[in-house]
Amino acid sequence: MTDPTTPELLAAAASIALTGRSIIERTDRTSFREVCETLDALHEHLAVAGGSLLFLADRLDCRAEVERLISEGQARLAAFRACAGMEGRA
After folding, report:
1. Residue (of 45, 51, 36) closest to 16 by Cα position
2. Overall domain count for the chain
3. Is 44 within the bounds of a domain?
């Protein structure tokens, strides 16, 4: 088996993102079962997309920078979540 090409990696990640969006739009949000199945599917899809993008980062020799940016983004998300619901508090 040969390594995937750069366009194949990009296509895989983009396709997974678009498919995930489509899955969310088709989910019956009133059905606990469907919501759980959607979350399970998205979990798997995101793992594959993330792996494809990190593989590409390795190929482009920028993995360290990508990981730093991911870490910074995760820290911003954590800070945002920590402040959620604090409106009007001193």
Report:
1. 45
2. 1
3. yes
Q: What confidence tens digit (pLDDT) does each residue in 9-59 have?
A: 899 889 988 998 899 999 999 999 999 999 999 999 899 889 999 999 999
Q: What does the longest C-alpha to C-alpha distance in the chain come to?
A: 59
Q: Chain centroid to CA 81: how far?
A: 17
Q: Note whether residue 1 is domain-resident.
A: no
| Domain presence at residue 89 | no
Residue span of the structural domain in which 48 resides = 6-83
Copy the structure tokens of residue 70.
């991911």
Q: Angle between the 6-26 and 32-59 helix axes, to the nearest 10 degrees? A: 170
φ/ψ of residue 28, rounded to 5? -80, 105
pLDDT at site 89: 57
Dihedral Cα 43, 12, 81, 75, nearest 10 deg: 120
The answer to whether position 56 is within a domain reads yes
